[in-house]
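protien #1 (seq + structre)
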Amino acid sequence: MSVTEPRNRYQGRSLPRPDDELVDQGLGFDLGTLLSRRRMLTALGLGAVTVGLAACSSGTTSSAAATTSEGEIPDETAGPYPGDGSNGPNALADSGIVRSDIRSSFGTGSAVAQGVPMTLELTITDLANGGIPFAGTAVYVWHCDRDGNYSMYADGLEGENYLRGVQIADASGLVRFTSIVPACYSGRWPHIHFEVYPDQASITDSANAIATSQVALPEDTCTAVYATTGYESSVRTLSQVTLDSDNVFGDDGGVSQLATVTGDVTSGFTVALTAPVDTRTEPSGGSAPAGGGGGAPPGGGQGGPPARN
């Protein structure tokens, strides 16, 4: 005959928070549970057992959840050219921003970005729910063109909005964009910006973003692309920066933001990255860097925008 424990106890131990779920009892309780299991396994003759003790960031985070939280995509600045309304123009308020092919401008713009074709695939996962696909999230992507310029900001491109777009994550958490490989401009490793919003209705206010980060492109891909016509200036700028010296990816060499790439310069490249998002943490990215105004990149585009963008 089994005996049901009182609601405020588990395996003979009092619950610190009897009204909360078992996984939300705090670090101290989690550690005690794990140690009790270790002692039980040892008593059964199973020898030393290595148990992963998660480093919980707060008393309300479970050990299992904290383990996955360590893989959250790093928060990064949106830079001075986000086009999300936080620093000047807002493409996210315009009809037509939800699209998969971002090579051309929409609305009143008419320019089309030229360059080596790139398919960008981002898979958004939900760490707050065990790392399942984060279906339904709205992902805003933007990056510079092959001259190092950002639409909506650079001289002569104020009325253009190419290389900007939003897609809604499918059941597998995937969004896919058709674009071109961006340039490498002075002071930055080649990269792609993105923001994640809870849903499409949230995108008109950048404060609703639940994650802001960047994708780093592998060096061999960039080297191959920059050897083609139109990317000549990127050959020099790429030689002047590394992932470790970059002031965004340099914290860890871009280990969790470095994309996996397949393809070639003739057929185009597919750039893929999984971006785990944890809605239990407070987003710290997204703001423009100090002194990063909304003007055109220095040097007419070839010098690129200021650092940390």
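ok now protien #2
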Amino acid sequence: MKTRVSRIIFTLIAACSTGFTAMPVAAQSMTSCTMTYKMSGWSFVYKQYDGVGHISCSNGQRAQVGLSSKSIGFTIGKSEIEGTGVFSEVRNLNEIYGHYVALGGHAGVTKSVDGQVLTSGEISLVLSGKGRGVDIGVTLGALNVTPR
């Protein structure tokens, strides 16, 4: 019993001495966010696509974003893509903005499909879309997500 009480007192003293700095991060709730987007562009070894997106989060936050993708690889074509994206959980919508490293693939003759796996630090994003165009390729590059 005496050992148990001393452990509790020690834990309380340790928590007070750290100023509870670790607790707000652990206690802060996470939110999941999804994005619908439209992008269009071209590729010939270098791929450049630009567009817009709308992000909605489970905590009620929403944002319009600008999207700009630049990459290189074995790629050729031109297309317009509409799709959805799913972000890993974040603490706040503002964590989503920034540069993402992207690995993607696309293909199509009149009807196109596009898929990308992206990461920016601890945040991951998976994009999948359909559209129209004539294109084929596999690329490595970057996607920039900016507020509008």
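The beta strands are 33-57, 62-87, 98-120, 123-147.
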